[in-house]
Amino acid sequence: NGTLRKDDLSRNSPIEEHILTFSLFTQSKSHENLFSNALSLSCIQDYQYHPSDESLLENLRFFCNYLQDDDQDGVFSKTHISSLILPWVTRSLLQKYDDAGHVIWNLFALCVENLLTGSSLSFSNDIEMLDSGLAGLLKVKGGENIENKRDGVPKDAFVSVFSQGTLNKLVPIFVRHAFKSKGEDDYTIIIACRCFGLLVTSDVYRPTIEYVANTLIPLLDAAVASVENVCPNQAAIIFFSVQLFVTLQKKGRAINQKKTFQHICSVNLFKCLAKFYNMGILSDRSNGDTSSLLKEVLRVTIFDNVHMEGFWSMKLSIPVIDEVEKIRSSPDKHDEHKLDHNVHTRFQNCYQWALFRSISSLMKELDGREAVVFFVPQIFEEFVHESSKFAKTWEKKRRKRADLIANMQFRVWSNLLNPVLTILKDDKCSNASERVAMLCCIRQFVNLLLNHDIYLPSFEDPNNEHINYLSALGEIILASAERHKSNNVYADILRIIFMLNHSIFHEKLPRVIHYVVCSSNIKETALAHETISTLCSTYQKLRQLGHFVRSVLVSNINSNDASLSLYVKSSHFRETLTAAIQSSPVGQLQEVWLLIEKHVLETVQRENMNQLAVALDIFLTLLKAAQVGMFNSQAVKALCEQTMSKTVYELLGVKSGLSTNFDLTCQKVKYGLHLWGWIVHVHIKSCFWSKSSDDANVENKGGMCGAKLIPSLLDSIKAVVSSDFTYIEALDALQLLATHRLQQVHSMTFYQHQFEACTESAVSTPESRDSMLDESRFLVTFIIRTARARLGSWTLLCQNLSYWIHYAEEDHINAFLVWLFSINSVSYDEEVDSLVYVPIMEETIDHQTFVNEYLASKSLLFDASFYEIPGLCHRVCRVGVECVIRILFPGSSPSIRLPMDNLSAENLSYAIRIINMMKYFVVNCEKCDQTNFVMNKILSLHGIAVECIETGKKRSPKTCPNILEFICSCRELLSELIKCVDLDDVGTLLTDILEKIFLSTESIIYSLRNEENISLQICRLVSSGERNITELFAFTIQFLCLYKDYFKNAAHFLSKHIASIRDAPRSLVVLVKMLRKSIHLVFRALGMNFDKEIVVSVTSFVNSMEPLNAFCLERLAAGSKADEQSHYRYFTSDFFSILKLLSVSNYDRETNEILPQKLVDLHSRILSKLCNSDTFTEVSDIYMFGAVNSMNLMPDMKEIASLVTIQNIVLKQYTVTKGRVHPIIDSTYSTILTDADGHQVAVLSNELWDYVMKCDESKDRLRSLSAVLHCFFCMIHAVKGQNQRVNLSQVTGKMLRLSLEMLQLFCNDNMNLQGEISFYTQTVLVTVSALIEKTDLIAIKGHDVSSILLSIGSIFETSSSDGASNEGSEVYISSCGIVISLLKNYPKQLYGCVPSLMSTLRRLLDYVLGTKANCYHALIQEFGKICELLPEHKDIFKKHVMYFILYFINKTLIGINPSIKAWFEPSIFSLLHTISEFEIQQLSTMMQPNEKASFQSHYKTFQKHTYKGQF
Question: Which residues 6+ apart lie within 8 Å of 1286 measured at CB?
């Protein structure tokens, strides 16, 4: 009866029960039955049950769980539940939000989220972690409305409950609650933050901009000030508030922009923005998104055009940072009287000063200082962009100069940077991380100054304010860097400031260099390299390189640290200084030289070895980089002699030029020897360019200065050799000097020889030739021993190879070659700070030494003259193979059987590189000694590697690819060595190579049949084997008279081998691939020489290849893989070509023995297969059809049945493939037609006509008739001989009538010239054209000519030219060809059907004017060819051509492209040549005015090109 009792609740579902309970509670306080009306709960009619507060709390908890549960799916949706309970929850929150518990806050948030987003997320319990709901809102970029992504979610209930006034009341509640002290109620704080984000980012909350600027932002400012630290969730509220302000400001301008600016720049809110930026972008946002959003905030709120005008009018002064008390920061009220009155007035009227005041205040506080430091550069960067835009408008109005704009930007830059700089200057950073933040801020500031050209030395700088400020900045950074080392940001800042203006650090350059180089954390890093490189290159461009070098030396004097000494030795410093010296003018070299020399002498007096080492390292770098030429040779020579007489003598301890023994244990002597060596090097170059008469005598040839010290040098070298290289510190210097002395002795020997040859009464020199030769050999021995002991340089040997090689012994040359192979066996790697192991020599060297030696060896290998040294290159292969053996089999003798114990992947890699290097040598050397010996050794190594593959020893997934690569490398080397084989001692070597290559290849493929990922190596293996075999045959063919037996031996081996693998198709395939090119070489050799013995040898070889050829034929006939077909085709083609040559060499008996009966059977099978084929997709069948029939050796080739069969194959393929006959089949068909006699031609032609009669009722009649015409077209061109042509002419008339009937059929059926129809039409037209040209086959009568013309006209009358394809264009070109043939061959017949001709020309013109084919120009040219033939028949055609010209002019009146019009001009000129003056006058009377204008332009051009001479 509708009465509700308590017992009735148990019968309802849980959701209905809680709805009823909540309804009863709310109905007791409200007279509106909202739930019964909204949910249509029929059971709510009357009630007597009153729930308690506890039951209501339980009820609310149920709703919280229900709204959070994603699996709820019932009659009542979450949207309905949320919309029904939200009014009561909102009312409760507004009335008592301070007392509202977790349940009320949670339920409110869930209702709002369900109504706005359609879903709900759980809340975080950690206030320091960003809430997931807020993170999702933050992913919406830059003010984009999240409501746009929630189409279809009902919001009517939300809008009906929340008016804008209600929302304006709720938002402050959320702000105040969100910024409660942490720890009081963290859970509800997170809820309040999410509710704020949901409302502010939705489209239902759109407050006025006045409310946001005057109420929300100040409230937010006060709330932020009430908390100590802002958590990420609270920072999100700041973000959403500013985003809301930006969104509203984009839609309309704020009323009070000044107040908005002041609020944004308030201390607390500005700190929050900075913290927000420094929070890691709120965990789920990327840096780029945050940066773009903050830039948008700054652009809209702070750097608007109105505010930018205030910044421009402020005219800020640059802070003075020389004294702390004079730093101009924010003008406090009690200090305003100290400022200039104008400045005071200006500051007082400019509210923009709030930005600087806030930054200055925040920098004095510890809280948030680090965040502000990271944020301030972003502010200035945005200011630069906006001020540049604003300045462009001012430039138009007031013509502001660029330097004035930069001046304003520099002043803002200095005022923003000054608070940060003050803290760093006073060293008030709270910790190291804050100092790093300050430095990063300063680096960004100076980077902006540099990147945006805000400061340039060329700008006006009144009172030098800008440069003074930058100088003070540089001093502060440098002083702080010297106090706090181990921070590489300092070096980067110093580099950027130096790039702004080098004069800032000009006098402080030694301090800068000392810090950059000696700082412990940046030594030998890219940053130090970049900084030093910037300093050096800048002073080089300023032509003040001496100042840079002086600064380096001074920094060395002021420091006892060894870091600078190490850095000066580094490759980067040497490369930087070398590039600067070589790019400097000539005068700079002398300045730097004298500067360093003076410093060296002063350092020697102080006896400071560390400083002396640095100075000499720089001096040696200068000498190595010095460029000497004719322009400065005299000056450089004088410098060398001066340094030799002073500095070198001082270092060596030699006084007054007297010779004395060197003390090799003294450090100064070592430095002196090094300097002497490079002074000699530069002196030699200067003497080469100098033409002074002082160098004319023989003694000084070679230019080694310091000749008085040479006896001491030789004595020192002898002492080192006798002491077994004890003085290791000075050996590299002695090696350099020994090399120079060797060059001098070599030159002296040469000049002495020339002098004696030119002078009859030559006086012997003080040093006899034998003594000089002994000295040279002694020096070479010392140089080689020093390098082998790693106490000297192999690079020096490479550079002076042409000198010492003449005096070297075999052991010396072998040692050099061993080093050359060893250094190139290591993979070149640019990784630094690592050690490199060099095999063979079994030593470990540092990476830089390896790089230098590797590059020196490569420079030799790329030098063509290196391969012309006879004593060196002849030993290369023998030494190389010995090196390979020493790597793979250490401790084994080359003459004994080598074990397989050391084939590791690493050693194989070394060996492969050596073998590749040997191959490079063989290719470039003219001759190699002991080639046969090397080939035997390589063949043995090849066999050992193959045995590893076969037996599985030392074979693993890691080493197997290396072993295969080693085998391939051996084969490639053998291919090159075969070309250099010794003819006198070849023996059975070539046959052994042939057998081992074949057998090993098959064995390897079989052994690795189950391996994976080695297909590329197998392909290379087969390819290298093929090259081996090819080179063998090429060599034997080259010396065919000497190696006739090779073919017999090869044939004997191949016969046995093919018989053994007859049942192994895979092995036969490999054999075909390897012999393919060799067969071709044999064919070419046979074509050039028909000697009887050669023919017999080749015949035996070809006879052994017959089973392999049969295998290829069978595989082609059976259809093989696409990648194998090319090998089969080339093999069989060359094999058949050899047979043809043998067939004409008067050895038919041998030839007939080669062709077995199986070839005849194969021919029959192929023909049968092609006749019965319905697809013709097997290209191999078609190829074999042509290959076998082209032999012309088959006994059944002359039988008529075979010819008819081949003709039927052509007909069938044309029918099956819709006209696409393969060229091989057409070629074969034409070949048999050419060789056919008269009877055979008659039979074949009659068979064609019988085929026509049989296909009358066929479904594909059109296709079949086209196939007949295709065959007949081949007959017309291929049949030769008078009797044959007469027999063919018997069916020519029938074929012409058939062609005309087909053309008429095309016209009657209105077929478009596309696809198959186009191809068939083309076939008919080319056949007709051929019949017209071949007048010996048929004489075409006048009515036939008329029919042909009418048929052509009908084709283009019925077919549309709109969008015509290229296929229709081919038909058009063929049709034009028929008209041209008629004009040439049957002009008299055309005279009787001129109207038909003109009609056809009109149809052709209409088609070409309307076509859209790609070959437009070609079509017009074909039409022009017809017009060119008309003037020859002007007496007959002129009256008709006159009307055709009128038709042509009328057609071209409609807009036509000028280029097309130009293409038609030759045709129009030919038509005008056809008519006379009378017809031209008649034309003018028949034309309309517009037609006359068009014709007049053509006619004037025609008259210009008309010949007007006498003849």
Answer: 1238
String of DSSP letters for 150-162: -TT---HHHHHH-
Q: Is 42 helix (H, G, I), strand (E, B) or coil?
A: coil
1483: helix, coil or strand? Answer: helix
Distance of CA 422 to the CA centre of its chain: 48
Is the Cα torsion angle 573, 577, 580, 582 positive or negative in sign? negative
Residue pair 879/818 in contact (Cβ under 8 Å)? The answer is yes
Mean pLDDT of 949-961: 70
Q: What's the mean pLDDT when you consider all of the chain? A: 75
Contact call for residues 449 and 414 (beta carbons, < 8 A): no
pTM of the model: 0.64
Window from 251-265, 708-722, 1472-1486 with minimum mean pLDDT: 251-265
How many angstroms separate the CA atoms of 1218 and 1264, rounded?
Answer: 9
Q: List the structure tokens of 377.
A: 């550069």
Residue of 960, 935, 801 whose CA lies nearest to 868: 801
pLDDT digits (tens, 9 = 90+) for 1400-1453: 888 888 887 777 666 777 888 888 888 888 888 888 888 888 888 888 877 776
The residues near 845 (Cβ < 8 Å, ≥ 6 apart) are 790, 835, 836, 838, 853
How many Å apart are CA 93 and CA 106, to the nearest integer? 11
Cβ–Cβ under 8 Å, residues 412 and 359: no
Residues with Cβ < 8 Å from 988, sequence gap 6 or more? none
Task: Name the helix (H) or strand (E) containing 843.
Answer: strand 843-846
| 251-293 pLDDT tens trace | 654 456 777 777 778 777 777 777 767 654 444 443 335 566 6
The answer to whether 595 and 554 have CB atoms below 8 angstroms apart is: no
Instruction: Count H helices and E strands in the chain, helices first.
Output: 70, 4
Q: Cβ distance 1322 to 1374 under 8 Å?
A: yes
CA-based torsion, 1360, 1365, 1366, 1367: positive or negative: negative
Q: For position 829, what pLDDT does the model report?
A: 67
Residue 1309 · residue 1321 · CB < 8 Å: no
Alpha-carbon 74 to chain mean position: 59
Which burial class, exposed, middle or buried, applies to 986 when counting CB atoms under 10 A from its CB (0-12, 13-18, 19+)?
Answer: buried
Q: pLDDT tens-digit profile of 620-675?
A: 999 988 888 888 888 888 899 888 888 888 888 776 545 567 777 788 888 888 88
Could you tell me if 673 and 616 are in contact, meaning their C-beta atoms sit under 8 angstroms apart?
no
